Amino acid sequence: MYTLATLPKGHEAIINRVSHLTGNDAIALRLGELGFVTGELVHVIATGPFGHDPIAVRLGTSRFALRRSEAARIHLQDTK
Amino acid sequence: MSTSTPRHIALAGNPNCGKTSLFNQLTGSRQKVGNYAGVTVERKVGFFTTPQNTTIRVLDLPGAYSLSSTSPDEDITRDICLGHHPAEAQPEILIGVVSASNLRLHLRFLLELKQIGVPVIVALNMMDEAEKMGLTIDINGLSAALDMPVIPVVSLHKQGVSQLLTVLDQPVQTPTPLPEDTDLHTEVRRLLSHYVQQPATPHERFTDRLDRWTLHPVLGPLILLIILFIMFQTVFAWAQPIMDALGSGLNDLGAWLLTPLPDGMLHSLLADGVIAGAGTVVVFLPQILILFLWIITLEESGYLPRAAFLLDRIMAMAGLSGRSFIPLLSSFACAIPGIMAARTIQNPRDRLVTILIAPLMTCSARLPVYTLLIGAFVPHRSVWGIINLQGLVLFGLYAAAIISGIIAARIMTRGVASQEHPLLLELPPYRRPLLRSVALGLWQRAVMFLSRVGTIIVSLNVLLWGLSSFPAPPAHAMGAAIDYSIAGRIGHLMQPVFAPLGFNWQICVALIPGLAAREVAISSLATVYAIGATGDDAGDKLLPILSSQWSMATAFALLAWYVYAPQCISTLAVMRRETRSLKIVLGAAAYLFGLAYLGAFLTHYITLKML
């Protein structure tokens, strides 16, 4: 299994789960509220010009920019 | 079931759902913008009348992704929706605004609103975008499943707004909440699969095509650079002539108004205190309005978050996020619009740090001082054949300011940096900015600046005038009149403190009226040296006097002082207005004066040792 932090630009994958780094991980909770939940399809549309960080991700009809450290909470699996 | 006529309602919804344009459409110009007590969250309240002549007060709540809030904006929305806010009553009806083109995200928050237990009317916004995407929405089915009235609207036009008004004249029921353990995402998916039909092959959206250019690792920064280049060209090319015209127009107006008055104290108070103070305020306006024309347009079009995406890594070096870039860049023109633009930063810590370091970005008002001192003390020659030494010093002053800003931001963000600080930024679809919203935004900025900041600036200017004019010099006094005034005495008293920086008493005296605005320092130096020059030729006449009377160490120390010192009460006034905290303003002034003193002291010391 891999995470959104390592998904290359132009690729898509399905969210397997979102991991909480601490008991009350505000970032993981917010990711969930933004729709990063199990079963959703994510697509990396761009990476930042400096050090390829942050990344821009399409999730359904929304697009979000997130830093790689945030994206590392999102575990992925291949689309079938 | 509530049947009473609603009088107090609120618009709630995700960021980028078109809530504010719906608010503008409902209320027109009948709206007031202020702040919620104790916080810097913008409070927008407006009024409108329904077909049955009921006047309704509507609150435009800050955009939120969820009621489990993560920012001061979302705190306000949560507290008001739940009826926990100390000053705002719980709305009798909530209008849940969702974008039909992004239901997957927006329905989730709407379901949270449904659970509160107040009547909710759903404004299904941006129906035009949904049509373009080929979506078919079963509005009646969705309304029945949600147990709430659903009104399709295009908030950019009047379309649907009249239907919304009609619904407000009828009693609205409180929806039956979902069972407590419902997973809201699962419920959203169920609603979407039942009531929204996607086209078999979704066509690529305009936003996705544009993003391939604007977020491109090479073209993206290039496009941003071109936009910023044009932005600053217009700020200086358009604002400067208007500012000059306003300045001289105000002078003429003042002179004309005051002709009937005999020369004397009252004349001087009105001319040098009140009118000069008002002039300082008005002269800032063109620059503020042109910068905000750009910032509001970029924000409304959806480009600003893309710029934040491109620059996030660079700003992370200062412990900030990409959102801080535009406010800081604007501060190079003038810290006032820069500090006001910090409102586009949602994160409160980032916002505060951005406001605190904005005065370190070299504003254009410092240039006259830099030009005068560099012209007087740095030889006009080239180094290694190609580099102009005067230009090199000017560059050094800018670089010193930027590096200090980065270091200051790093120190200020250090304690909290251990806690992870998220970017998590939505990149909304591109939308054509509405003339109406841009005009309204500019108008609100102008009113805010003139009424709140303007009054502080004029009063402080009158105070400074008083300090520099009283007491009047004795009849046959030699030297400059200011030397006999309170400001003159304070200047002399300050001199021992500033002696380690190499400042003479003339500089100390000139620093006091120079607080009104940085560029005033030149004319006040001219006053102190009693050369009686005013305005444009002050610099030319001062130049030979300074280069013969000051040491190079003194001049360089004064340059260093100007890099840091908060020599501008207007900046402090706008800081007070934007942070609503005198403590922060005093803290900012103290840290900037501290840096200025240290910088000037080191510069003076090092220059003395080297020469």
Automatic annotation (TrEMBL), chain A:
<dbReference type="InterPro" id="IPR007167">
    <property type="entry name" value="Fe-transptr_FeoA-like"/>
</dbReference>
<dbReference type="Pfam" id="PF04023">
    <property type="entry name" value="FeoA"/>
</dbReference>
<protein>
    <submittedName>
        <fullName>Ferrous iron transport protein A</fullName>
    </submittedName>
</protein>
<dbReference type="InterPro" id="IPR008988">
    <property type="entry name" value="Transcriptional_repressor_C"/>
</dbReference>
<keyword id="KW-0408">Iron</keyword>
<dbReference type="InterPro" id="IPR038157">
    <property type="entry name" value="FeoA_core_dom"/>
</dbReference>
<dbReference type="InterPro" id="IPR052713">
    <property type="entry name" value="FeoA"/>
</dbReference>
<feature type="domain" description="Ferrous iron transporter FeoA-like">
    <location>
        <begin position="2"/>
        <end position="78"/>
    </location>
</feature>
